[in-house]
Amino acid sequence: MNDKLKKILNYLINPIGILMLFSLCLTFAVDAISRGSISLTTTYISKHGLTFLFNALVILLTLSITLLIRRKYFAYLLLSAIWLGLSITNNILLKLRGVPLTGSDFKLIESGLKIIDTYLSKESIKAIIIGVFVIVSILILVFVFAPKSKKKINYLLATLSIICIFFMANICTSLALEHSIISTNFWNLSTNYEDYGFPYCFSRTVLTSGMKKPNSYSEDSIESLIDSITNSSANVETLASITNELTSDSSNANIIMVQLESFFDPKYIKGAEYDIDPIPTFSYLKENYSTGSFSVSTIGSGTANTEFETISGLNLDFFGPGEYPYNTILKNKACSSINYALKESGYSTHAIHNHQGNFYGRNTVFSNLGFDTFTPIEFMNATEKTPVGWAKDSALITPIMESLTSTEGKDFIYTISVQGHGSYIGSDALENKYVNLTSIENEGIASALEYYVNQLYEMDVFIADLIEAVSSLNEDCVIVFYGDHLPSLGLTDESLSTGNIYETEYVIWDNMGLEKNDVDLEAYQLTSKVLYDLHMNNGIFTQLHQSYLFGLENEQFAEKDSYLDALRSLQYDILYGDEYLYNSQEAPKPTNLQFGINPIILNDVYLQDGQLVATGENFNENTIFLVDGNFINTTFIDSNTVTCPAPELKPEGSAIFLGQISGGAQLLSATVTVTVMP
């Protein structure tokens, strides 16, 4: 071996060897923090040593950039702090919501900060802030005072080394996939993270989003698929003959969907017993109306993803792991949905939610999903709150009834509940206790479970009250109740009699005499089931789902594989493809979303005793003055009057209007602008 080669090898071996050793140590620390136990990591390595080494390779890839940096100590510390910070966050999220950290969570930071005090105490938040401050301070000190590497960097060799590491990683990834050391199928995020390690799984959620183009995708294939679905789906008359004949015209029925936050039957928890049924109304409905299991993609959180599947009829499994379409593709693109389908039959479409209107970006996304109106909590008088600050679901009844009576025709109303949301702080915080936990195998969750079931009890009362209110209208109506996911109580498949933590239930109440027809459903199939019961088949996705679920007229899509392949192709086409579907039908266009069934109206603004006084209609606690574009602290007097201290007005007059403000001082809607002279 000549001297030049020896010199190169000596140059490479030391830093790369250090990197590899450091990567192994850092991977061990990251895994132990993520799992919350050194012993669990040790056990994991003994059983899945190759998978652990692959995760070390992932971390090695991120550390390889240090080969180009002379401030080695700073670079090692910075990258280690990032990985350790991510693993700590993952551990916290697993405990709080039961779902690990994903790349999509970083697109939810703004929304998450709004509710952080619901999950963490003030002391915990202060500790986090202090911890971040200390870490940043240490990084700055190391950057300033730590010595640089004395060895001159050969940037050519360093770059080639990094390329070789990436090439090696690519080969190892192919081999690892081939031998099932890792997987690309993320059907259960929590289980995947446990099986395949945090570094790999998290990195995959960061790098993978959207949908992969189907191999057979083309204009001809989509047109052929549309023809097949159209030919295989039953028309309305056929549906009427297949299902029960009704005395009333089912196509004129109002449809109300109520997504119940973290709602499921707690009697499915093994070993848990209660002095009364926590959900007697829902239990009665299951016995007497159409029901079934309801498969969702998340536990503990991720409401928006269940919501997305239900409204759109699209399958979240086709997206990247952990993705929230509300925060990616739907931010800027109108999407086929049940709303657009029902508009073809003359329906008005409404969304209602007793939480902030800009949460999950709904103030934008709901326009792209085809809603005509959206009534968030900013347009409600929701004064009753849970001990942790969530609005109680009883506040939803008034806007639902206002939506039903706001139009002369039929209405589709999508309602999103929030009362059942965590955190579940313990039964001692309850003002009114309706249900007592009499037995539980897992004593560690006893107090939190008792708090949770008492929220369920009140939500069940809301279900009964809503049915009573709707019944008083004497209009044909269907109400669909379902849970968006299980609560974040640390439940596992083994702790449930159902054996599935990704399963809630639905029930379909009606006042029309619909036949009880129990079917187990995926979230994206629910609206198709409802329309089937109503003798309707609006929309190509509805027709596809109905063909699979009910085997209408032919069996082309009766097989699950052919059905899912068809769904995948159409879904890709309308979201990421060339939109061939819209060659044969009108493409969806964003609606001019109206906030509030009864939007605020400004009649007059005047000066009185050093105050600006505004009179109008439908004001509430969230109504605020904007004077020359500036927010002014506003006092709510009543639904017709608000005031604020009069600021200095411009000599030529100041432009004044009222707005409804959501979290983060985001303006949802505004009145007309008036000019007020000083």
Detailed description of the structure:
Helix content is 42%, strand content 15%. The protein has 678 residues and is α/β, with parallel strands linked by helices. Strands 10-3-9-8-1-6-4-5-11 form a 9-stranded mixed β-sheet, with helices on both faces. Helix 3 packs antiparallel against helix 8 (155-178), helix 3 packs across helix 10 (198-207) and helix 20 (540-550) runs antiparallel to helix 21 (560-575).
Features:
single chain, 20 strands, five-stranded antiparallel sheet, about 40% helix, Immunoglobulin-like, 3 domains, alpha/beta, Alkaline Phosphatase, subunit A, globular, about 675 residues, nine-stranded mixed sheet, 21 helices
